[in-house]
Amino acid sequence: GFAKVDDEREFRQGFPEVIFGAGKTAEQILHIFKHLVYKGNTVLATRVDANSAEEVCRQVEGAVYDSSGRTLLYKPEGYELKTEKKIGVICAGTSDIPVAREAEVTIEAMGHRYVSFYDIGVAGIHRLFAQIEEIRKCDVLIVVAGMEGALPSVVGGLVSAPVIAVPTSIGYGAHLNGITSLLSMLNTCASGVTVVNIDNGFGAGYSASLMLRV
Amino acid sequence: GFAKVDDEREFRQGFPEVIFGAGKTAEQILHIFKHLVYKGNTVLATRVDANSAEEVCRQVEGAVYDSSGRTLLYKPEGYELKTEKKIGVICAGTSDIPVAREAEVTIEAMGHRYVSFYDIGVAGIHRLFAQIEEIRKCDVLIVVAGMEGALPSVVGGLVSAPVIAVPTSIGYGAHLNGITSLLSMLNTCASGVTVVNIDNGFGAGYSASLMLRV
Amino acid sequence: GFAKVDDEREFRQGFPEVIFGAGKTAEQILHIFKHLVYKGNTVLATRVDANSAEEVCRQVEGAVYDSSGRTLLYKPEGYELKTEKKIGVICAGTSDIPVAREAEVTIEAMGHRYVSFYDIGVAGIHRLFAQIEEIRKCDVLIVVAGMEGALPSVVGGLVSAPVIAVPTSIGYGAHLNGITSLLSMLNTCASGVTVVNIDNGFGAGYSASLMLRV
Amino acid sequence: GFAKVDDEREFRQGFPEVIFGAGKTAEQILHIFKHLVYKGNTVLATRVDANSAEEVCRQVEGAVYDSSGRTLLYKPEGYELKTEKKIGVICAGTSDIPVAREAEVTIEAMGHRYVSFYDIGVAGIHRLFAQIEEIRKCDVLIVVAGMEGALPSVVGGLVSAPVIAVPTSIGYGAHLNGITSLLSMLNTCASGVTVVNIDNGFGAGYSASLMLRV
Amino acid sequence: GFAKVDDEREFRQGFPEVIFGAGKTAEQILHIFKHLVYKGNTVLATRVDANSAEEVCRQVEGAVYDSSGRTLLYKPEGYELKTEKKIGVICAGTSDIPVAREAEVTIEAMGHRYVSFYDIGVAGIHRLFAQIEEIRKCDVLIVVAGMEGALPSVVGGLVSAPVIAVPTSIGYGAHLNGITSLLSMLNTCASGVTVVNIDNGFGAGYSASLMLRV
Amino acid sequence: GFAKVDDEREFRQGFPEVIFGAGKTAEQILHIFKHLVYKGNTVLATRVDANSAEEVCRQVEGAVYDSSGRTLLYKPEGYELKTEKKIGVICAGTSDIPVAREAEVTIEAMGHRYVSFYDIGVAGIHRLFAQIEEIRKCDVLIVVAGMEGALPSVVGGLVSAPVIAVPTSIGYGAHLNGITSLLSMLNTCASGVTVVNIDNGFGAGYSASLMLRV
Amino acid sequence: GFAKVDDEREFRQGFPEVIFGAGKTAEQILHIFKHLVYKGNTVLATRVDANSAEEVCRQVEGAVYDSSGRTLLYKPEGYELKTEKKIGVICAGTSDIPVAREAEVTIEAMGHRYVSFYDIGVAGIHRLFAQIEEIRKCDVLIVVAGMEGALPSVVGGLVSAPVIAVPTSIGYGAHLNGITSLLSMLNTCASGVTVVNIDNGFGAGYSASLMLRV
Amino acid sequence: GFAKVDDEREFRQGFPEVIFGAGKTAEQILHIFKHLVYKGNTVLATRVDANSAEEVCRQVEGAVYDSSGRTLLYKPEGYELKTEKKIGVICAGTSDIPVAREAEVTIEAMGHRYVSFYDIGVAGIHRLFAQIEEIRKCDVLIVVAGMEGALPSVVGGLVSAPVIAVPTSIGYGAHLNGITSLLSMLNTCASGVTVVNIDNGFGAGYSASLMLRV
Ligand SMILES: Nc1ncnc2c1ncn2[C@@H]1O[C@H](COP(=O)(O)O)[C@@H](O)[C@H]1O
Ligand SMILES: Nc1ncnc2c1ncn2[C@@H]1O[C@H](COP(=O)(O)O)[C@@H](O)[C@H]1O
Ligand SMILES: Nc1ncnc2c1ncn2[C@@H]1O[C@H](COP(=O)(O)O)[C@@H](O)[C@H]1O
Ligand SMILES: Nc1ncnc2c1ncn2[C@@H]1O[C@H](COP(=O)(O)O)[C@@H](O)[C@H]1O
Ligand SMILES: [Mg+2]
Ligand SMILES: [Mg+2]
Ligand SMILES: [Mg+2]
Ligand SMILES: [Mg+2]
Ligand SMILES: [Mg+2]
Ligand SMILES: [Mg+2]
Ligand SMILES: [Mg+2]
Ligand SMILES: [Mg+2]
């Protein structure tokens, strides 16, 4: 067949292979999705367009599509949260929400909890301070931002939890499709911040979940 | 001769030509400096190394060298402040101070006042809030920052004065000698921020001074 | 809800939050627009496509769409000009006009006056000299240019007002979608020029308006 | 003074401010170092050249210089390990070792344990497999690599701990001073990998330590 | 006419000119294809869209379209394999398969044999080891990978055959449409690896075939 | 030997091979220089450092070193101007003069005349208009500029002669060692402008000379 | 109106303003086209799409559309060739022909002659040598090439006429939409080559025509 | 110790580990060199500076330093050529010779023969044709070029052997330290060309040697 699903991954890494939907046909996604459901796994697919999602949801009972984050999630019987700890997902602008959603559904798939803090960009920083106590209660933080990508630096300086910064492609002109946010985050003057690829909500959610298990 | 000094510039633009010292010999700087002093101008030279500065100071009474900002300033008799307004110069890290100094001496040369706010980067943002009332009293703000260049966005969201952002070359790796700070500032989500070239304290000081005269 | 409108911004910065229409649905724009109208504000939305604009204009009496600059403006009762000062908006080529329009409507929204000088690129520089007296009467200048972005340098050398340079994405090949114009403007040999992001007419109009209030 | 040490940082973030030695004089480093020692902190300085280090070691009893990682560390009385957990530091080539050392001393400063795995690049992958059992016993992993930066992907696929990838500037030509390693790591096909700036051993050690405390 | 087919190429280089279909109309492709068939050649066209392919297949008996690799191949009477040697085509992800197919059909066109090893990326490296014995039996290897492009380094360290690395445009964000994979492969720490352009399966297949004839 | 001097070049191209001094030892330059003198040629060497130049001048009577443009020129007996036409060499800033000199000596070597117009950058454009009549008398124009590289656009719009634009590496920060000037010139909105590599005074002088012979 | 046609340009530069059709509506192009026809000019418009062209041709008798180069040309009564000299237009691949056509129609508009040499790329260099005698008869040469852009270097080394190199956007992957061809041409080791922007056939044709008039 | 020499490499890959001297001390190089000599290997070290080389040559009898290519080679007793086949090493300019030398010594180390063709760049292409018969007798070709990097395309179109292209850092300005030559070679329109990193003579020599063994 066209794909070799890495069936041992849960054993090796603590979570089964996740389907990357970009560039796959509805048929291919469905095929792999069913294979993983059949094996008894929690199944997650990311970057799934609405049409493919509809097809999968029709055929797989229990599959849920998030149209903002474009994820498909199937939780098997017996799914339960693995810990009391929680991940804060902070989002600079309303346009960054889809990336935050990809992170959040990934966290859910991996059996963890998240709290959302949306639309609190640095240009109106009182919005951040209004929620800083709740933010400080989180065990790991994901900070999603486009434009100049300054939010992880500000948050990173206010908390003692590890911060995962997610640059987004939201911006124009000299934003270079997210490169500016990415470079900004890599050069943060705050300590305790690590970075993932542009728009990679999945990667942030995955890594944050692993950190809860350390 | 090697240079055509633009003697009409004060008439046309309100300030005489400024000497850009980079790549000029001590001899060349001295020659132009004296010519401008002789014409009765306030004389400013930027990017002057210590040796050239020593030479000029020896020969031109009243010339003052700032070794941090690497500027030479000569104020003619009758020099006085042109207005009560003032420019705030905010600086993210201690390594950014030389660029701030270039801006400050330029402001002084143009006959204006400045107030300095140093080492208040976003990773310890309480330092900014501790001074925000003083900052809000300024008529124009210059914000100097290297690394991720986030400070102008935060300041820009807290004040109603125009902000001039100056990216610096302070950083390493993916900082790309200041390109990251520059891109960050150009993509600020705050309104009212304009940007000058990397390490261009002179340009910021000059533009800020013009704004005081609007 | 999806957005946290920064209602204190007028208080903090002298102008209410402006709606950035790119990537928002007609519904979202309408929702925020109405909220701001209801609060009694001057309301400005930028980057609004024709369809969304039509929807808003149908529902909000007094909202005006500028199809060139793609802005929506609503002026509340009692709107009036804040000062006699004025901003000159200079434009290099006919294709740069939409960016100039975005700046002009922003200026109007903020309660200021502008004068337009269109299609006077440096390749036919007599067109600039034909209008230089009118240009010199302006208190702040915005210069919009694509291609090699040379116009701000020429204008900057002829006036004593602060100049805000706006690079545009008009060009092809090695123009790199505006990066060339941007780099050119950041490296201007004229003094008194600051720069905003590519195609950012809004930012230029906003900063120019703040400068009138210094 | 030239610097505003962020004295509240330990309280806010769990660790005092770290001195970034690059671009600071021996005098400045010494001044801040003593201030922090005096306050009773563990004191860490990075990017310290041999001369400055010698000066500090002469004046501050107990300060230790690591000439490979170019760090200065002072551990106050009562310093002790905070947990039984440990961080694995894996290094691709012998030239990457200084960056690994910066990470390791940072870990030590923060009160944690590390295990080193050096010179096990992917071109001789049996060297990695020979140590994989020891690697799997670590709670967090730091993977340091230059050249094509492939090692974090391979390691990331073999373990269930979070991985922090550190690109280095080791390479030539199309390596672009580390940009290639950085881009490679940001695009890893392994899950659970986050990235820091080029040569930023400090950032990796700091974040890894925070993860141990989640 | 619009094209000067290089009819002497087989004589000079051992294989006739290959038609590069991108940007050519169905009519143009058909015209050149027929000309080459008429001359008695093996005819290969790459980057052919489905419509053009259909047209050619309708008019040229024996022409075969590969819809994955988007190649058209016509083998003249008397076509036969030129040697017992064989080329291994290794592919990191399922999305890279079209590039691998372009290489494979090129190899077939040139009269050589290939063996395919698909979907064995480095994040699940046991899949590579499971096939390493078969891979070692190949005389030349082509390794196709997108994302971080690490596979050629790992393979290159395990075999003694020459390796041709083919970066693909599969990835997003900081992948820069394949530039990341390309840079990664050019900086491989394995010896014996050479590189072709992004997505250039044709070039890899062609060069690999020449190597079999050394 | 280490070099194959292309002795037929004068026959083929109208001028003998020019020695590119960068990266050659004094010995190598001397060797080739003498070979060409011996053959009776006009001999030109560019990018020659002062030491090598001294060596050559000591041994070859008639060789002249220009320390600004760093060229060595030897004119054989019988050297004479080939035409009455002349090339204007316009230079934006005093720091660009060395590049202009390289062009001028090349023109002289090829048997043509030049007129210099120095230090007339666009920020003080009256300096250009003061000389425009003389400039219009030239048959071909070379325009040398660093920073934003705007001068060729302005000149190109005022004349009917072909213009060769030479970007220089004079600038800092976002000037990217000349890339900004280069991009600017390639995107000129004036017609009739062609471009050479950064700091390539030689190439400009050579091409301008060929144009005089059309 | 939206445009200020530069009516003095013929007087100043020897040829009237050329209409740049990209981003202009059929209506705008028609309006300016008619204005220029009415003034008695030769009228040239470039980058004109088929629909706009049809509209102009319907309304302006004598206007001719070239669908390959996408140019519109109107020659007034009394149009005639200005000289016996001629320009050679050499083209590397069949896909580069549209750019060559833009150059050729520009040459025709300006009253000059051209000779075409198509599809003679360096990979089959005998095709170039087969025509070198005809090429050497040209007074100026335009060389159009995509991919690695090597042709101008080879041609430049074989002729004594000035060469204008035109990089095209034909290529893929690391071709970066023409940047590779452009960089290659700017770094040519041949003397006498100048360069224009990517795909700028117009600029090459215009400059070549000016050279014929030197 | 600091290094884990990959002692099994000869067994796995047919040649022992090669010492990459850049960034290693004389002491480190000497240590590894002796270890490999002791094991009875052919020993090759690249990027070795003159001082380290002197040290090694003093202590290891039989070690030979090539000051152009900066390689150290030790051939054990019993060293002999492995085949009659030979590799042609073609070099565009005299400044590219050190890279060619690195390739040649690597070939010798691996037990193969090479023939050198120096200083035959494309600007004087008759020099290439003068040697084409000898070049065609080679079984594999290495083509080394800086500047526009055109030579591999021309050679690639004239031969049927596989070509390895080596871009060099020889050039200036828009050459970007070799990136231009690299991009050019990756986009060659000739078939049968693969590419290695900038200045990577070692990689080319190594791969070429492997190809002789296919
Ligand atoms: N090697 C390093 N790389 C990046 N950041 C560092 C490094 N060492 C220290 N820092 C950070 O630099 C800050 C101090 O900067 P400064 O005020 O310039 O001394 C500290 O808060 C640290 O978070
Ligand atoms: N997929 C491909 N990528 C790169 N070059 C190709 C490809 N397919 C064919 N070619 C080359 O393109 C040349 C033909 O180009 P053209 O004259 O435009 O059809 C042939 O000589 C091949 O060497
Ligand atoms: N294909 C082209 N590429 C570059 N510049 C062009 C082209 N066609 C026309 N132009 C220039 O564009 C100018 C007109 O621009 P506009 O005022 O926007 O119509 C003319 O002066 C021409 O010099
Ligand atoms: N000039 C060179 N360029 C690239 N790689 C090299 C070079 N010389 C040696 N190498 C590789 O570098 C590896 C040794 O790296 P190291 O462990 O740092 O000494 C060897 O396995 C060689 O494959
Ligand atoms: Mg918002
Ligand atoms: Mg500080
Ligand atoms: Mg116009
Ligand atoms: Mg090693
Ligand atoms: Mg897979
Ligand atoms: Mg000057
Ligand atoms: Mg062809
Ligand atoms: Mg030579």
Give a short summary of the structure.
The structure is a homooctamer of 214-residue chains. The first copy, chain A, has 214 residues and is α/β, with parallel strands linked by helices. In chain A, 36% of the residues lie in helices and 18% in strands.
Note down, in words, how this protein is organized.
The structure is a homooctamer of 214-residue chains. In chain A, strands 6-5-7-8-9 form a 5-stranded parallel β-sheet. In chain A, strands 1-2-4-3 form a 4-stranded mixed β-sheet, with helices on both faces. Chain A is of the alpha/beta class and 214 residues long. Chain A contains 9 helices and 9 strands. Chain A has helices at 9-13, 26-38, 50-59, 97-109, 126-129, 132-136, 151-156, 179-186, 201-212, and strands at residues 19-20, 43-46, 64-66, 71-74, 86-91, 113-117, 140-145, 163-167, 193-195. Chain A is globular. In chain A, helix 4 packs parallel to helix 9. In chain A, helix 4 (97-109) links the parallel strand 5 and strand 6. In chain A, 36% of the residues lie in helices and 18% in strands. The longest helix of chain A has 13 residues, at 26-38. The mean pLDDT of chain A is 94. Chain A binds chain D through residues 12-15, 18, 85, 139-140, 157-162, 164, 182, 186-187, 191-197, 202-204, 206-207, 210-214, and chain D through 12-15, 18, 85, 139-140, 157-162, 164, 182, 186-187, 191-197, 202-204, 206-207, 210-214.
